[in-house]
Design brief:
Distance between the termini: 20 Å
CATH superfamily of one domain: NADP-dependent oxidoreductase domain
CATH topology of one domain: TIM Barrel
Structural class: alpha/beta
Largest sheet: 8 strands, parallel
Radius of gyration: 19 Å
Number of helices: 12
Helix content: 40-55%
CATH architecture of one domain: Alpha-Beta Barrel
Strand order of the largest sheet: 3-4-5-6-7-8-9-10
Strand content: 5-15%
Length: about 325
């Protein structure tokens, strides 16, 4: 089934509970959406954070570009429904950064307006040099996201990592944040990341990993398991490159063997089949894409043989 067709069906079963801007109706409030969707969809899978045992849904939401919007009512309404659908569908993790323009502010405002603050697992990053500059930036992020305690604070792309990790370790001890992490989006940062994973008591790493970028399987993912570090995955669709490759290709019939009915689920389930992965955070500003992403967190996952078949099936 083509992704477009699957999403149309998803919109009928779950997304139709959300009012569109063009209808002239107000969006449903968060409690109504929770009641409707939780009654109609299976629970999303959850995996534990190794350092605490707290479980997280395996699908979350990234905000790079997608939440960097102004005050336009139509854009805000759609993003509000994305957040509501995330929670209603069983998700909670939302990841942002000061690097992402207005995304932190938009997340904070919309979550507060929708009454979702207690339902979200807030993750953001520090992206600057210098201890004091880092402290100021992280304090500003908490204000922007309208939370007194950040769930996860990460050093973005390892920028001045050791200095910021000293601060974050103290902040965790003071209950200003709950978890400490580091991030990168490219294999060029893997060597430094591995060294930091060995040196610091990290709770999370966030890295790129997809059907096209599998280098993390060689060292970082096994090391995360060994060091009991949770793993967030960014760039699961390679910026849309994976969808471009299968644009003229039908989803293989055997994908149903692991409860997969769209290309988006195909790509995400491949990632989730690696047990080192805790949560994948694809970004989107569309409710129907969010619903499709969440569906990847339900049902069976590919076996190792399936994963080999998936790689062999992908057009080059």
């Amino acid at each position: 089934m083509k992704r477009r067709n699957f999403l149309q069906l998803s919109a009928l079963s779950v997304g139709s509970t959300l009012s569109s801007n063009s209808s002239g109706q107000d969006p449903l409030d968060s409690q109504e959406i929770k009641q409707v969707e939780r009654a109609n969809v299976a629970a999303i899978d959850r995996r534990p954070i190794p350092s605490s045992g707290e479980s997280l849904p395996v699908i979350g939401l990234g905000t790079w570009q997608t939440f960097d919007v102004g005050a336009e009512p139509e854009q805000r309404a759609e993003l509000s429904n994305v957040l509501k659908s995330l929670i209603a569908g069983g998700g909670s993790v939302i990841d942002s950064s000061p690097m992402y323009g207005r995304s932190e502010t938009v997340v904070g405002e919309l979550a507060e307006q929708a009454g979702l603050q207690d339902d979200l697992f807030y993750a953001t990053k520090v992206w600057t040099r210098g201890q004091q500059a880092g402290i100021k930036q992280m304090q500003r992020s908490k204000l922007r996201m309208r939370t007194s305690q950040m769930d996860l604070m990460q050093v973005h792309n390892l920028l001045d990592a050791e200095r910021h990790l000293e601060t974050l370790t103290k902040w965790k001890q003071q209950d200003l944040i709950r978890y400490v992490g580091i991030t990168h989006y490219h294999t060029g940062g893997y060597a430094e990341m591995a060294a930091l994973m060995q040196q610091y008591p990290l709770d999370f790493i966030q890295i790129n990993y997809s059907m096209l970028s599998r280098e993390a399987e060689q060292e970082l993912l096994p090391l995360a398991q060994e060091r009991k570090i949770a793993v967030l995955i960014n760039r699961p669709y390679e910026g849309g490159e994976l969808f471009a490759r299968v644009k003229e290709t039908e989803l293989p019939s055997w994908a149903s063997e692991f409860d997969c009915s769209s290309w988006g689920q195909f790509f995400l389930k491949f990632i989730l089949a690696n047990p080192a992965v805790t949560c994948v955070i694809p970004g989107t500003s569309k409710v129907h894409h969010l619903l499709d992403n969440l569906s990847a967190g339900r049902g069976k996952l590919p076996t190792q043989q399936h994963r080999e078949d998936m790689l062999a099936f992908m057009p080059s």
